[in-house]
Amino acid sequence: MNKLCKALALLCVLTLMCAVSSGALARTEPNSKTIEETNTYDYGSLKITIDQWCYAFNKTNLRFFVANVYVDDPAQLKTAFAGEKYSKDAVEAPKDIAARHDAVLAINGDYYNYKDKSGLVIRGGELYRDLATSRHQLLVYADGTFEALLPANYKQGTGETYIEAGVVQSFMFGPLLVDNYEITELPEKYFISTKDTIREPRTAIGQVDANHYVVIVADGRRDGWSDLGMTLQELQDVFAEQGCRIAYNLDGGGSATMVLEGERVNRGSTSRERSVSDIVYFTR
Fold first, then answer.
1. How far is Cα of residue 59 from the mean position of the Cα atoms in its chain?
2. Position 8 pLDDT exceeds 60
3. Residue 271: which pLDDT band, with cuts at 50, 70 and 90?
4. What are the residue ranges of helices labelled H in 54-104?
5. Which runs of consecutive H residues, i.e. helices, occur in 40-170?
6. Sheet holding 212-218: strands in order across?
7. Continuous segment of H or E residues that includes residue 160
8. Cα 255 to the center of its chain, rounded Å
């Protein structure tokens, strides 16, 4: 009888340990989700609505901005390099790059040159880099279509074939968040952490159709405003809720920046904009 009691006690302990372990891996749900402010802008051929969201948790807040962007022409989505050149050294504040190009809405790009020598870099229809990579990549065609390019489907040295097929922009940060309207299964091993416990400032872009884009920038590392940041899983959920066919993660952390008409929309992780290698922007 004594042995039976010990066995039952051990079983209870193991069951409890499993439950605790499973709970630790489960993503934390916010106590509330609130749109604190909505601003709409109409530039004729370009219409933008920006919602400021707040997710309130027990002791922290998450604030992020969701911009729905409607264009008349997919060519209104553009990219630009810092210093107006592809370079491993050129960096500038997103606001400064945006100002030179009369950008209405701009976000930081994929920081193609930060300690990196991999992937496909096509900008404005020109091929700048075509190297092997284990990352998810994103292709943008001249007709506005977004398409995922996974490592298994990409072969180094084939960059010109993508341009011939109509690709005008490519990005190489990732991971892919949504594809064919479905939340993707994130890779367990990636060059950034994909765990659902990791909160960071984020920048990401999605597409509903060729004339409707969704851009999200999440603040983080700002006590009392947006304390830690956003998980990739939360980011996926928001893009899916916005009805995106496809969504893709760009560079985040201190780089996460959204600029509207020359003014920074988000607060960022510091008071000063981090200099980056490139931006994605929309024009009238």
1. 25
2. no
3. confident
4. 94-100
5. 94-100, 159-164
6. 32-42, 46-56, 61-71, 212-218, 202-209, 246-249, 176-179, 182-183
7. helix 159-164
8. 11
- Single out the residue of 142, 113, 109, 106 nearest to residue 129, CA to CA: 113
The model's pTM is 0.90
Structure token pair of residue 52:
């400021």
pLDDT digits (tens, 9 = 90+) for 33-66: 999 999 999 999 999 999 999 999 999 999 999 9
Structure token digits, residue 138: 């994103």
C-alpha span between 174 and 250 (Å, rounded): 6
pLDDT band, residue 9 (cuts 50/70/90): very low
Q: What is the DSSP letter of 101?
A: T
H/E run at residue 241: helix 232-241
Report the alpha-carbon distance of residue 56 to residue 182 in Å, rounded: 26
CB 110 within 8 A of CB 147: no
Check: CB of residue 101 under 8 Å from CB of residue 113: no
Gap between the Cα atoms of 188 and 102, Å rounded: 40
The DSSP secondary-structure symbol of 239 reads: H
The region, left, alpha or beta by phi > 0 then psi within -120 to 50, assigned to residue 7 is: alpha
CA–CA dist 89, 152 (Å, integer): 30
